[in-house]
Design brief:
- By secondary structure, the protein is of the alpha+beta class.
- The protein is 30% helix and 24% strand.
- The chain has two domains: 5-245, 4-Layer Sandwich (Glutamine Phosphoribosylpyrophosphate, subunit 1, domain 1), CATH 3.60.20.10; 270-320 and 328-444 and 451-464, Rossmann fold (3-Layer(aba) Sandwich).
- The protein has a seven-stranded antiparallel β-sheet.
- The longest helix is centred in the middle third of the chain and has 15 residues, at 268-282.
- The radius of gyration is 23 Å and the shape is globular.
Length: 468
């Protein structure tokens, strides 16, 4: 039986970031700064594996990138090859043993994954036939174990990925490495983003282009859906493992990606501004000001303000020093958790008709608190605009959304949600308006959270929701 001790426990690692560097002096340091740029995609833990052509070196730590590494950690991560990972977990599992990249010191192999496999039946059956226990393995760990198996049978890492690829059913943008080779690959729908850049004579792989900009790399191209990229001493080459069709999760444009990134040739910031402009065309409201919920809704609010002619006011101030904490607040303070992060400016809001722009409503609890805060600050009217359609279905591709019964739009009408939040009005961007704002065809996207259409099979998970 192959050892599974390197592959962690049953924790989902969702909404994560991956990074890779080859042929770069101090590759681990490049990974450190790249992961810093991708911090928005995961704050639970961070890890880097590097290689000097002979062996692998690994360091992981909990919390933010700035806290997970010290100078001495980067100094011991020697070599010109590295992969890195920022992890976001759905619940618990804050221990270092859950961190990626996974690695195997015996075979000198490491792996990191952004995404989620909603069904692992085929993969689990394969591993069990090879006497590899799956008892303590999550989806990412099983992917690593499958590739590891084929390497143990004498295949190089590229051929091992090709052999294991048909076992992976779901969303994945992944990086893997040996002491001499860096590999990146993407599922056949390209649900999660992945890009290639060049840094000097070396190459960079990253979840988003903002990481390339941070380290001074030049964007080359996106890893295509169903494609594998191999980088070694012979240079860079690609192979189409399976026919691909773009089904990027549109939530990357709505919320997840950094606004200074580009995806599918489109500026994320510009697309979000277009969401706001489209909202202004669909809902021309009478008000005194437009207030964004920082940070991801700022471009949409700017777009609405420009299209409507209303002034934009940054009247909700975000405390940018509040990050994930493991300190439990007292019962009295727990109710005020949002005000630790956001605080209104009464002098700006008092006796005004305000439009609050946010990117999405999931459970509705945060939006309700924001409406209450703005009213308490003296607003005369509070209108809420959402720069995406109602979220009615859970995600199974690597996003931490609740079960369907906890999605407020799945159990309440817009009128009911408006009353529940205490707003004067609530309006969502239309589905067609959202697509139009991207300047891309609707069939280029996965919009499963809005319409319940899942482009990659979700197996038994389909029983977890009803079509509305």
């Amino acid at each position: 039986m192959l050892s599974t001790g390197f592959f962690g426990g049953r924790e989902l690692s969702e909404k994560c970031a991956v990074f890779g560097a080859y042929g770069v002096t101090e590759a681990a340091r490049a990974a450190f700064y790249g992961l810093w740029a991708l911090q928005h995609r995961g704050q639970e833990s961070s890890g880097i594996v590097s290689a000097d052509g002979m062996r692998l070196y690994r360091h992981t730590g909990t919390g933010l990138v700035a806290n997970a590494y010290h100078e001495e950690d980067l100094e011991q991560l020697a070599g010109h090859v590295a992969i890195g990972h920022n992890r976001y977990s759905t619940s618990g599992g804050a221990g270092d043993h859950h961190s990626q990249p996974f690695w195997d010191r015996d075979l000198q192999f490491a792996f990191a994954h952004n995404g989620n496999l909603p069904t692992t039946d085929k993969l689990a059956r394969f591993l069990e036939t090879k006497k590899i226990s799956t008892e303590r393995l999550n989806d990412s760990a099983m992917m690593a174990a499958a590739i590891r198996y084929f390497i143990s049978q004498g295949k190089d890492i590229g051929k091992a990925v090709i052999a294991a690829f048909p076992l992976f059913e779901g969303a994945f943008s992944a990086v893997a490495m040996t002491p001499h080779t860096l590999v990146a690959f993407r599922d056949h729908c390209g649900i999660r983003p992945l890009v290639i850049g060049q840094l000097g004579d070396g190459y960079i792989i990253a979840s988003e282009t903002c990481a390339l900009d941070t380290i001074g790399a030049t964007f080359l191209q996106e890893v295509r859906p169903g494609q594998m990229v191999i980088i070694d001493s012979d240079g860079i080459r690609t192979r189409q493992i399976t026919p691909g069709r773009s089904k990027l999760d549109i939530f990357e444009f709505v919320y997840f990606a950094r606004p200074d990134s580009k995806i599918m040739g489109r500026s994320v910031n510009e697309v979000r501004e277009n969401f706001g402009k489209q909202l202004a065309r669909e809902y021309p409201l009478r008000a005194d000001m437009v207030i964004p919920v920082p940070d991801s809704a700022i471009p949409a609010a700017q777009g609405y303000a420009r299209a409507s002619g209303l002034p934009l006011e940054m009247a909700l101030i975000k405390n940018r020093y509040i990050h994930r904490t493991f300190i439990r607040p007292t019962a009295a303070l727990r109710e005020r958790d949002l005000q630790m992060k956001l605080n209104p400016i009464p002098e700006v809001i008092n006796n005004k008709r305000v439009i609050i722009v946010d990117d999405s409503i999931v459970r509705g609890t945060t939006t309700k608190k924001i409406v209450r805060m703005v009213r308490q600050a003296g607003a005369r009217e509070v209108h809420v605009l959402i720069s995406s359609p109602p979220v009615k279905y859970p995600d199974f591709y690597g996003i931490n959304t609740p079960v369907q019964k906890d999605l407020i739009a799945a159990r309440m009408s817009v009128k009911e949600i408006t009353a529940h939040m205490g707003a004067d009005s609530l309006n969502y961007l239309s589905y067609d308006g959202m697509i139009k704002a991207t300047s891309l065809p609707a069939d280029a996207f996965s919009t499963s959270c809005f319409n319940g259409v899942y482009p990659v099979a979700i197996g038994e998970r389909a029983k977890e929701f009803v079509k509305l």
